[in-house]
Write a structure and sequence with these properties.
single chain, 150 residues, mainly beta, five-stranded antiparallel sheet, 34% strand, globular
């Protein structure tokens, strides 16, 4: 008999440190179904844990102004994440400007938290790797990430 062969995959527990790969970063606008007004705008970050027994999860990083259709008014938590990625890219790869698409497949260690509505959020513990910025992978680091960094 083998133990653990039929274990059900699970979401990360509140407070878990999880090694993840960012598999998507997208903008999303949610509309009020009754009058069509904008309810909220956010960046959706899709994370896939390296541990195959933990289910992938998506976090929302809301804009501070839901009427901003340019997606430039990001909240301080997401701004801190972007700044840490920018600092890491500059120190490790010598890249100071890049597009957000280069963060896809980046590897992070995050602490998962849940709000009272059981939506996951994350605290960035460590940036492990941003493979797309590694010049040996054929990228030159052109592009731009974030707002207000000009």
């Amino acid at each position: 008999m083998e133990l653990g062969t039929s274990v059900t995959k699970r979401l990360p527990n509140n407070g878990d440190l999880v090694d993840v790969i960012l598999t998507g970063i997208n903008t999303h606008t949610e509309f009020n179904e009754f009058n069509g007004e904008v309810r909220w705008r956010a960046y959706l970050l899709d994370f896939k844990p390296k541990d195959g027994m933990i289910l992938p999860f998506t976090v929302r990083e809301y804009l501070t102004d839901n009427l901003d259709d340019s997606f430039q008014t990001i909240n301080p938590h997401f701004r801190q994440f972007i700044d840490r990625c920018n600092n890491f890219a500059l120190k490790k790869y010598g890249v100071d400007r890049y597009d957000s698409k280069y963060l896809v497949n980046a590897e992070f260690t995050v602490k998962v938290n849940y709000d009272r509505n059981l939506r996951p959020s994350f605290e960035l513990v460590k940036i492990n790797e941003i493979p797309a910025l590694n010049k040996s992978n054929g990228t030159n680091g052109i592009g731009f990430m974030g707002a207000g960094n000009d």
